[in-house]
Amino acid sequence: MMKVFKRFAFCSLDNYTATTPEQKALVHELGEVIERGMNGNILIIGSVGTGKTHLAYAIMNACAERWKASSGEEYYRSDKVYYTTIKEIIDNIKSSWKDPTASDMETYCKVPLLIIDEIGVQYGTDSERTELYEVFNRRYNDMLPIIAISNHDKGALLHILGQRIYDRLTGGASIFELSGKSYRQGVNYGN
Ligand SMILES: Nc1ncnc2c1ncn2[C@@H]1O[C@H](COP(=O)(O)OP(=O)(O)O)[C@@H](O)[C@H]1O
Ligand SMILES: [Mg+2]
Predict the structure, then answer these.
(1) Could you tell me the pTM of the whole model?
(2) How many of the other CB atoms lie within 10 Å of CB of 176?
């Protein structure tokens, strides 16, 4: 499901405060993604509150605006850019074993741009990992990009995802490591 959380409804690249060189480079690259699409994957790593989800929504909101401008329709084109979390993918894999019609696998594998947020440690079983691998492998083979987002550093991600997924995700990818303290703590943002 395409979730549009109220908190992120107005996120854009313009209202993201980029202070570090890494943040500026990332905003620049995401601007290119919005204007021209993307070639390789993008991996965004950073501690909590560094604005990773904000940036994911900035892309979606920009795409939605373009869609609205060209079609007059309000809604996200989830067939163009699809935001999800790794937990949601795993949950979907599990529920599709009971009900194959509930599977979102084709979307994960075929949507032109897949954004996977909150890559953490939520998955354990071999069969779950096998299907997850399928998503990364098919997208890799079809040269379809992923924007992957995590609180974990590269070493931890390799451990979490396993070598096969990690290699496909990071091969030729642009990797941005955001640092700094949580934006949630510094600004009265209604948390
Ligand atoms: N650099 C930033 N500029 C503007 N807003 C930010 C920035 N970083 C975080 N925020 C805001 O702070 C809140 C938390 O950010 P979020 O994207 O959820 O962080 P993360 O996903 O990295 O944990 C959101 O409301 C987001 O819009
Ligand atoms: Mg987040």
Answers:
(1) 0.89
(2) 20
Q: Is 48 in the pocket of ligand 1 (CB under 6 A)?
A: yes
Q: What's the CA dihedral at 134, 138, 143, 148 to 10 degrees? A: -20
Order across the sheet with 146-150: list the strands: 81-85, 113-117, 146-150, 42-46, 174-178
Token duo for residue 58: 């900035």
CB 116 within 8 A of CB 149: yes
Relative to the CA of 187, which ligand 1 atom is closest? Answer: 12
Q: For residue 49, which ligand has an atom nearest its CA?
A: 1
CA 153 to chain centre: 16
Give per-residue pLDDT as tens, 118-128.
Answer: 998 766 688 88
69-89: per-residue pLDDT in tens?
777 665 555 668 899 999 999
On average, the pLDDT of the chain sits at 87
Q: Please tell me the distance from the alpha carbon of residue 52 to that of residue 88, in angstroms, as a whole number.
A: 17
Ligand 1 pocket test target in 45, 178, 183, 184 with most atoms within 8 Å of CB: 183
**Rounded to whole angstroms, how far apart are CA atoms 44 and 28?**
14
Q: Which atom of ligand 1 is nearest to the CA of 149?
A: 21
Q: What is the assigned CATH class of domain 38-178?
A: alpha beta
Residues 6+ apart with CB under 8 A from 141: none
